[in-house]
Write a structure and sequence with these properties.
Elements (H helix, E strand, L loop, with lengths): L14 H14 L5 H8 L8 H12 L8 H12 L2 H14 L2 H9 L10 H12 L4 H21 L1 H6 L37 E9 L5 H8 L5 E4 L14 H8 L6 E2 L5 E3 L8 H4 L9 H9 L9 H14 L10 H13 L4 E2 L30 H7 L3 E3 L2 E9 L24 E9 L4 E12 L2 H11 L16 E7 L14 E6 L9 E5 L4 H8 L5 H9 L4 E8 L6 E4 L5 E4 L4 H20 L4 E4 L7 E2 L10 H13 L8 E3 L29 E3 L14 H21 L1
Parallel strand pairs: 1-2, 1-9, 2-6, 4-18, 9-19
Antiparallel strand pairs: 3-4, 5-11, 7-8, 8-9, 10-13, 10-16, 11-12, 12-13, 14-15, 16-17
Length: 723
């Protein structure tokens, strides 16, 4: 089920643009025959299962456009994922390449339209784009490669079979799938009483968002006040089925899986489903580190973060989810991180899991935990809210917040134009929201007590901006823990999707210069779409297919950066949120240092080939007789990694931890909310999600977000009691 708020219309292309796009895709993923095909097939591991071996011939011989539905899915992905600016640039490039003159300009000297060139000529052009000093050419290469390869591996069961990745019907279940333990009910908005009116729903507290912020806040507030939780995603029950990649992207993620930043240099993943990020994250449950709490309290003036109250909030949310490390069984990938870190002498620790005592050997939790063992807000805090009487509405996106004058009474119905309830300097009391429903209709929710905005660090600032608030800090301070990737091949079978996803972490370079900025090394969830689209550099079609055939002998680490420098969320002409973010030189250096550490860890555990996502950095091949970390060839390769660093457009960068865009602070000139979570220059309006972070948390942000929401919900209850 694809719902309207997770996707946009497919990109519209004319006939010549489509012909060029097909030629590009068939260059990236070619049909191979003869001797070339045999060389590719020779890379099939000897221990490949029969069903993988049976799909290899078709995998090698088929081109992109011969994969069922590939082009249609790609156009949908382009329409959903790219900003208007990047999309326009891409379509302009397709137009230019459909002409002789344009191809000559972009490709250098070829006197035919791109689609009329031979496949080898096209491949040579795209190889030159990948390492071009011209930003536009390099950007085109990254966009076309990332989108097209992400797309076909997400949608094609044939490709998944050929690389040994189990689609849902091939996955081995370690326990029987069961129906959800709690039966949620959802309100159905009543129809308008007249064609010209908008139906109204009345409550006391409106909570916008159901993730780590809104879900936790609802569990406290619903005990004392009539509460409605609104979520723009849909309810996708866990414990019922194991989803495919494309089902998960369409049902559970914003923009059908990918949000590209304005420059296209960073790919962002954001949950958009009932339960928010807690439904799609990897169970890692790390508390706010001491130096971050100290920084927020002493440098930002937010003393609460060093208080016993905040410690109690951390403990409370962890206790409710059964967070522990006692029951962990490490996967092969995590065992490699632990083994290699210890061999090299690097720090390594287990990551506590929110799985309530279950071993939880699930490698597919980004697709919605099929076992229902991961204790996200759907399994915990919102159950508490529902039992206290809270109501829920899904597939409903907040268009804008509604305001009245401070001394006016909150109405119970709407008379007149909603524009009369727009925020102004004289209308500052928040009384609810105007919602866009999935069927295209509208609903007004009126909240007589308070509104809590917990829509996440991309959507919370967008709601404020669409509502007319003018604080220039709204949307600023965007942090995302940018990650790059280090992928290794082993002689042994790894099956990187088997077992718990992320249960270990090395903090070896988390404090590179005494400021507690740096990077961590962790294991990432293994998805063919991500490996093909971002984690492995494309060198040629034959090389790509050869490498992917060994996928089940690979594993990938991420280098998660506590980014010092920030970007911005803004809204476009249609009111949609967009993100300006490029990894800075400082943060790129942090990432590069962690790439080296990750490579050292992998090499020490027997990796035979190590790849980064850096343009122009070849894979390191551990040849027979190599001398490990002291081998001169490895040292020379490390020098290449360090010199290349991690730069925008020169390396694959992804992010799944959005933070900071409505930051908490002590003055309106430096923040969006006050130390109790109240939006400056308004009343009755609070924010409780990761957007309130003053700086990047440095660890997977779920627990910090929950503790902030727990605290802010407590402040709200105190404020209402005092009023």
């Amino acid at each position: 089920m694809v719902h309207r708020h997770n996707t946009y219309a497919p990109a519209e292309v004319n006939e010549t643009q489509l012909e060029t796009l097909k030629a590009i895709c068939d260059t990236l993923f070619q049909s191979h025959t003869g001797e070339e095909a045999e060389k590719i097939k020779a890379r099939l591991p000897k221990d490949a299962p029969e069903w993988q071996a049976a799909a290899v011939d078709e995998f090698v011989s088929k081109s992109f456009t011969e994969i069922d539905g590939a082009i249609d899915h790609l156009l949908q992905l382009i329409g959903s994922s790219l900003s208007p600016t990047v999309k326009a640039d891409l379509l302009t490039a397709l137009t230019l390449l459909s002409t002789t003159a344009g191809t000559c300009i972009l490709a250098g000297g070829y006197l035919k339209p791109f689609a009329k060139l031979s496949v080898k000529e096209r491949e040579a052009i795209m190889q030159s784009w990948g390492s071009s000093r011209i930003t536009m050419r390099r950007g085109l290469m990254r966009a076309f490669t990332g989108l097209s390869l992400f797309c076909i591996y997400a949608y094609s069961d044939l490709l998944c079979d050929a690389i040994g990745y189990p689609s849902p019907n091939r996955r081995k279940l370690y326990k029987t799938l069961e129906k959800p333990k709690f039966a949620y009910s959802f309100i159905t908005p009543r129809a308008a009483v007249a064609p010209s009116t908008i139906p109204v729903f009345n409550t006391e507290v409106l909570i916008i968002g159901s993730g780590a912020g809104g879900g936790v806040a609802s569990s406290r507030i619903a005990k004392d006040y009539k509460t409605l939780i609104v979520e723009k995603g849909v309810y996708a029950p866990t414990g019922e089925k194991s989803r495919s990649q494309h089902e998960a992207f369409e049902e559970l993620f914003q923009n059908a899986g990918i949000i590209a930043t304005e420059s296209g240099s960073t790919t962002i993943f954001a949950g958009s489903v009932f339960g928010g990020g807690t439904t799609v994250n990897w169970s890692g449950s790390l508390k706010t580190q001491h130096f971050v709490r100290d920084e927020w309290a002493k440098e930002k003036g937010l003393e609460w973060f060093l208080s016993d109250g905040y410690t109690e909030a951390l403990d409370a949310v962890c206790a409710r989810m059964g967070v522990s490390e006692a029951h962990i069984k490490h996967s092969k990938s995590n065992s490699k991180l632990i083994e290699g870190s210890r061999k090299v002498g690097y720090h390594v620790d287990p990551i506590p899991q929110n799985t309530d005592g279950h071993e939880h050997a699930c490698g597919f939790c980004s697709f919605g935990c099929p076992y229902g063992e991961k204790q996200g807000t759907v399994e915990t805090f919102m159950v508490d809210a529902a039992k206290a009487g809270a109501e829920f509405l899904t597939a409903a996106q907040v268009h804008r917040l509604l305001f009245i004058a401070p001394n006016d009474t909150v109405p119970t119905s709407i008379v007149g134009n909603l524009d009369d309830l727009t925020y102004t300097t004289s209308r500052t009391k928040c009384i609810g929201a105007e919602l866009d429903l999935d069927d295209g209709s509208k609903l007004v929710v009126l909240a007589s007590k308070s509104v809590v905005l917990s829509a996440g660090s991309i959507n919370s600032p967008a709601v404020l901006l669409r509502s007319g608030l003018k604080n220039p800090m709204i949307g600023k301070n965007f942090h995302c823990h940018p990650c790059t990737f280090v992928t290794a091949l082993f002689d042994e079978q790894i099956n990187p999707w088997d077992g718990a996803i992320m249960t270990s972490v090395s903090n070896v370079v988390e404090n590179k210069d005494g400021t507690h900025h740096g990077a961590k090394v962790e294991v990432c969830m293994s998805m063919p779409s991500s490996i093909a689209g971002a984690q492995e550099s494309w060198l040629s079609s034959a090389d790509h297919k050869s490498v992917m055939l060994e996928y089940n002998h690979s594993l990938s680490f991420i280098t998660l950066v506590r980014d010092r420098d920030s970007g911005q969320v803004f809204i476009d002409a249609n009111g949609h949120p967009r993100v300006k973010y490029d990894i800075s030189a400082y943060d790129g250096d942090s990432s590069a240092r962690a790439v080296v550490a990750a490579a050292e860890i992998l090499l020490s555990t027997g990796a035979k080939r190590i790849s980064t996502s850096q343009v122009g950095v070849p894979s390191y091949i551990a040849e027979p007789g190599h001398k490990g970390l002291i081998d001169p060839k490895f040292k020379a390769w490390v020098a290449q990694v360090q010199a290349a660093s991690i730069r925008p457009g020169w390396a694959g960068v992804g992010a799944a931890h959005q933070m900071g865009t409505c930051q908490m602070g002590t003055t309106p000139s430096t923040s969006v909310i006050d130390p109790r979570g109240r939006v400056w220059n308004t009343s009755n309006l609070y924010i409780a999600d990761a957007s309130v972070f003053p700086t990047a948390s440095g660890v997977n942000p779920m627990i910090t977000t929950m503790a902030c929401a727990w605290s802010i919900a407590g402040f709200l209850l105190e404020d209402l009691a005092a009023a």
